[in-house]
Amino acid sequence: KDTKEILEDERIARSLGVARFELYWVWAQSYSPTSRILLIDAQDSYFQPNGDMGIGSRRACSHGNDTSADAVSTLHIFEENNKGMKHRLDKIENMTMIVKAYKDEIVLKFLYNENVLSPASTHGHQKAVETYLRAMVKQFDNTQCYKYRCEWAFHNYLHYMGVLWSTPEIDKIHNHLAGTGAVNSIGQDIPLNASEMYDPKTRIVNNMPMGHGIYPSWCVHQYKEDEQLVQYIDKKKKDLVAAIDYSRPLPSKTIDSLHKDSITTRIKPLIGKHRNEKNAIFSIVEAKNLQNLALFVLTARKSGFEGDIVLHTPKLKTLDSEVASFLKKQAAHNHVVLYEDVMTSDSDGEKWSLDNFYESRSTGQYIPDPRPKRPINLVSIELFAAWLNNYDASSIIMLIDGEKSLFQTNPFAEYWKNSCHALELNFQQEHASIAKFANITKRDEDVGNAIFSMLTTTDLEAFANKSLLNPNAIHGHQETVKNYLTDMLNTIEAFKCYHFGCDWAAINYLWYKKRFTDINSISFIIRSHLQGLGVIHLLPSTKVMMKAKKFFSKERDLYKNWDGTVSSVVLGYDQHQHLKKHFDAVATSLLAEA
Predict the structure, then answer these.
(1) Is 0.70 topped by the overall pTM?
(2) What residues contact 417, with CB distance under 8 A and at least 6 apart?
(3) 143, 97 Cβ separation under 8 angstroms
(4) Across the chain, what does the average pLDDT equal?
(5) What is the pLDDT of residue 552?
(6) Which of 179-193, 351-365, 412-426 has the largest mean confidence?
(7) Distance between CA atoms of 38 and 183, rounded to whole angstroms?
(8) Where in 464-568 does DSSP place strands (E)?
(9) What is the pLDDT of residue 69?
(10) Alpha-carbon torsion 427, 385, 496, 491, what sign?
């Protein structure tokens, strides 16, 4: 440590099976405590699509949720397939080298009653995995068992003798039966075509039902035990390799992949501080109307939302004194993160460019905005992308038109009701009375023209009766929202669409043409909710609202979805005069209490 000199290995020569745990230990230190790490025998394993129980399962549990997977440091270990009672420690002691490593008679008798645990498939949080790896290396130092399969002795000893349970770095240990969990070691369950775990039509290996139904295994281990599966996988490998085009560069997943410049990470808020481990709501506000702004911020807090509210406003000194005072107070005491004046407008105040926002990848120096001045809804795509860097992949992010919104319940509570297996991205459709392809030009010429620039006549005919997705009502996990913003920016850039309505055109082009790019995560769900369903309720026309009285309570102080559940977020109340008047009064009341 003092000289940084490379030293000779002080341990005796040992098998690769034993030595690898030291290498894994070094690698594990390069990841954060909540990262998931899988230790696997790569030569006898492959992965299947749609495996919901992968090592990333439950990573979608959001911050602020008591069931968050990151609340505990968990280690997952797996039993060998014990079909025919062949894989028990009292039957294959020489294979596991327990007699060689542990000569104590009490230890041997204690272990002989247990099923064999495999050291070839272990996973968990980084903190738990690193602790396990240190313990495996320590067992070698204690026993000097250096031969092939000594690692099996260490692995089983650590678990069954309770060594791992006594370490404070590991909160929980899951011992999985064969055919359950992230890794399915098929082992003795061959031939697979005679097993309930295998679907010969799809060639998918499934986990054992165990009361959860049939679902594909994420990782199939020991597939070489089954002759038919080996033949199928050998062909699959050749097909995959043959499809690789080495002449094509790897796709860039940066937010600005079509430019040689990148968004700066040096942009800092004027007031407030991002909290990496929290959820967040993003919005760009004009901050001209105190009631609209207060209704947005204060109802969000009243609903139980405890994350960050991140806003961009014009310069505070140019705002009404009451509005500026409200924002400063909320930033100081209510976790509002405030950015001001990151952009410059044209003389009409309708189109904008970003200031000191882009930097050269080669020099690191600020450069001018590479795009022409554009409406604020397009600029927000890049601004939101920069803000996302302040949150981690499990944070839930909402992008919303704040000054047209109010909260009735905590919108992120819906995420905590599910099993947290999948990262989500959620869109909201407008009511047909507001916006559908067939009538959009009549209702909004700018949006219509932008859509016509991206979609063909054939597309427009096919989508004529479809409702448009609203780009101002998006929510999902940080990773999925970042992917969405990247797709939006690249679509706008590809069509050179820099005018009003291009954000509407881009999101609907991506959704209805199925052009959203895949996300490199274990499980990913993208959904488009019908109007009046889901977390954000985009209010329809007044005519529809008055006809569908189920939308609101008798006192009109609670707004509901079509299915009778309370709408977590109401968007578009400002378009209805009777609602605007009512909620202005609500805002005044909230301000008096704030």
Answers:
(1) yes
(2) none
(3) no
(4) 84
(5) 64
(6) 351-365
(7) 10
(8) 473-477, 524-529, 536-538
(9) 43
(10) negative
Residue with tokens 């997977």: 69
How far apart CA 557 and CA 53 sit, in angstroms, is: 42
CA distances from residue 295 to 312, 473, 582 in whole angstroms, order as listed: 17, 17, 11
pLDDT value, residue 253:
47
- Residue 320 CA to residue 323 CA, distance in Å, equals 5
Give DSSP secondary structure letters for 289-351: -HHHHHHHHHHHHHTT--SEEEEEES-GGGS-HHHHHHHHHHHHHS-EEEEE--EEE-TTSS-
Report the pLDDT value the prediction gives residue 16, as an integer from 0 to 100: 93
Q: Helices (DSSP H) in 145-263: which residue ranges?
A: 150-160, 227-242
Q: Reduce the DSSP state of residue 537 to 3 states and report it.
A: strand
Beta strands in 32-102 (DSSP E): 36-40, 45-47, 74-79
Q: What is the 3-state secondary structure (H, E, C) of 107-149?
A: HHHHHCCCECEEEEEEEEEHHHHHHHHHHHHHHHHHHCCCCCC
Q: Do 519 and 463 meet the contact criterion of CB atoms below 8 Å apart?
A: no
- Written as six digits, the tokens of 399 are 């992008």
Paired tokens of 256: 């600005």
Out of 182-191, 379-388, 543-552, the most confident range is: 379-388
> Which range, of 100-104, 296-300, 336-340, 521-525, averages the lowest pLDDT?
521-525
Q: Lowest-confidence range among 157-166, 431-440, 536-545?
A: 536-545
Which among 69, 63, 480, 66 is positioned nearest to 306, based on CA atoms?
63
How far, in Å, CA of 563 to CA of 555, rounded?
19
- Distance, in Å, from the CA atom of 331 to the CA atom of 225, rounded to the nearest integer, reads 61
**Mean pLDDT along residues 512-521:** 77
- Asked if 251 and 77 touch (Cβ cutoff 8 Å), the reply is no
Indicate the Cα dihedral angle 52, 250, 126, 276, nearest 10°.
Answer: -90
CA angle 188/193/197 to nearest 5° reads 65
Q: Which pair of tokens denotes residue 398?
A: 């909402």
Among 117, 239, 122, residue whose Cα is nearest residue 178: 117
Q: What DSSP state is assigned to residue 66?
A: T
Separation of first and last alpha carbons in the chain: 56
Helices and strands, counts by H and E, the chain: 18, 24
Residue 422 has a CB neighbour count (10 Å cut-off) of: 21
Average pLDDT over residues 350-365: 83
Residues 223, 45: Cα–Cα separation, whole Å: 7
Q: Look at the chain and count its residues.
A: 594
Percent of the chain with pLDDT over 90: 43
Lowest mean pLDDT among 187-191, 283-287, 402-406, 428-432: 187-191
Q: Hey, which residues does 221 pair with through a beta bridge? A: 45, 185
Give the whole-angstrom CA distance, residue 67 versus residue 44: 34
Contact between residue 181 and residue 76 where contact means Cβ atoms under 8 Å apart: yes
pLDDT digits (tens, 9 = 90+) for 200-257: 888 888 888 765 567 788 899 988 888 888 899 999 999 989 888 777 554 444 555 4
